[in-house]
Write a structure and sequence with these properties.
There is one protein chain. This protein folds into three domains: about 120 residues, no CATH class; about 100 residues, 2-Layer Sandwich (Phosphorylase Kinase, domain 1); about 140 residues, no CATH class. The chain is built from 21 helices and 14 strands. It is globular and about 70 Å long.
């Protein structure tokens, strides 16, 4: 029934061509070196050609290939501008759209899941999709009660395609490493693969979205559309309009960028505290900036009153107690320069393995530049800042690189780490000035000194 380009031979051939292309360019690069070009220039050209081929192939496929492309795209701000610039438009396209599946396939899924009389559920249904992503596409419609809705239809065979693509990509993850300095690609692919079954389950997604919609109902800063109907392979939610975050990144005003960045940060830290769930797919395609009409007379109102619309709850991290308070404690103690205390906490949590001894002061020096946004009253996230951070950690000659190789990321923190990095990547794409410390004080357990006092009092009691 599916027209998704997932036939094993076709998909494998497209993906298998990637490492061959990488190898060919490596030979080309060696020739350039012999011809007299500097290693730095050759590496830059090699990186650009590799990226162009990678995103060209990923853009032609759905499934895991596109999911990986979306996850990787939020880190493009860490790349040198001369490399990131030429294919930034292709990355944005990955975040927002993919080739749609044929209308007949959409109708077949709806007939199978909603019944042959599925059209009676809708007053109107637009056959042309409004958005297409890695495992499904969205159609705008009017529900039988008059509500405007988004109808998310899962691609037939999406699970098979996801796993096939991610397995294939993991085989040559090492070759993708140079694309994003300082980032290990293989754990990212493994983590995406582990989440496949959850993302395919629209029942779980509906539960997570309902929890957020109920908690944020009437919230002045965040809007989560309500779930209208859910069944296997089909999810119907209320429709929300707004400016896609990708458009704010490309053409937004300074005020819009700052507002979007502040709200994105607020949602990142407040979501787990309020719902026990962490939205774990923070790429720009999943957010909208929503004019409210408040604070102005032009119909759109003062940007300071605009809200953040949040979509796609297919991937969440379940954190019943909110974000771990050890993150808040360690962050505050790092800011206060308590090297020994930070080191002991990292060791207790498994970030430093028992078999390894590190200098606490060196660990503090490694962490301080990374947490700079949490130290300032307001911090301007820029592409140059994140590039400097990535370069500092990626440079084999730097002490930070040597120390970073000896640190460990415990499995329980893996998704939190990826979401935080991805969100920071989006903030840098926005170029937003954000009062991150305000959000940490409001929502992150352990960040304020009184949090620790309360914890100690509870233990004593």
């Amino acid at each position: 029934m599916s027209d998704l380009p997932r036939k094993a031979v076709t998909r494998t051939a497209k993906l298998a061509a990637l490492p061959l292309g990488f190898a060919g360019r490596a030979t080309w690069g060696l020739g350039k070196r012999i011809g007299g070009k500097s290693a730095e220039i050759v590496a830059r050209e090699l990186q650009q050609r590799t990226a162009e081929q990678l995103f060209k192939v990923l853009g032609e496929l759905k499934g895991g290939a596109m999911k990986f492309g979306q996850a990787l795209s939020v880190f493009e701000s860490a790349l040198p501008e001369e490399i990131a610039g030429p294919y930034r438009a292709a990355l944005t396209k990955l975040q927002e759209a993919a080739p749609p599946m044929p209308t007949r396939t959409v109708h077949a899924v709806l007939a199978e899941r909603l019944g042959e009389d599925w059209r009676e559920q809708f007053l109107e249904f637009e056959d042309k999709p409004s958005a297409a992503a890695s495992i499904g596409q969205v159609h705008r419609a009017i529900w039988h009660d008059g509500r405007q809705v988004a109808v998310k239809v899962q691609y037939p065979g999406a699970g098979e395609a996801l796993l096939s693509d991610l397995n294939q990509l993991s085989r040559f993850a090492r070759l993708l490493g140079p694309l994003i300095p300082g980032m290990d690609i293989k754990p990212l692919i493994s983590e995406l693969r582990d989440r496949v079954s959850e993302e395919l389950d629209y029942g779980l997604e509906a539960q997570a979205q309902r929890a957020h919609a109920e908690e944020f109902a009437g919230d002045p800063d965040v809007l989560v559309p309500a779930v209208v109907h859910q069944c296997e392979q089909v999810l119907v939610t209320e429709w929300i309009d707004g400016i896609p975050l990708s458009e704010v990144i490309a053409d937004g005003t300074e005020e819009q960028r700052n507002r979007a960045g502040q709200l994105l940060t607020r949602f990142l830290f407040s979501g787990p505290a309020r719902t026990g769930l962490l939205h774990a797919d923070p790429h720009p395609g999943n957010f909208r900036l929503l004019p409210t009409g408040e604070g102005g007379e032009d119909g759109e109102g003062d940007v300071a009153h605009w809200r953040l619309g949040v979509l796609d709850f297919g991937t969440v991290d379940r954190l019943p107690g909110g974000l771990p308070d050890t993150i808040g404690y360690a962050l505050r103690m790092t800011i206060e320069g308590e090297a020994e205390a930070v080191y002991e906490m990292l060791r207790e949590e498994g970030f430093v393995k028992e078999s390894i001894d590190l200098d606490p002061d060196a660990v503090l020096d490694y962490l301080l530049p990374i947490i700079e946004p949490a130290q300032a009253d307001a911090f301007e996230f820029t592409r140059s800042w994140i590039r400097n951070q990535a370069g500092r950690i990626a440079d084999p000659r730097s002490p930070a690189h040597q120390l970073g190789k000896q640190l460990n990321l415990p499995p329980s923190y893996l998704l939190i780490h990826r979401v935080t990095l991805s969100t920071i990547g989006v903030l840098c794409q926005l170029g937003a000035t954000v009062r991150m410390r305000d959000e940490l004080e409001a929502w992150l357990p352990g960040f304020l000194p009184e949090d620790e006092s309360e914890a100690e009092a509870a233990v004593e009691a």
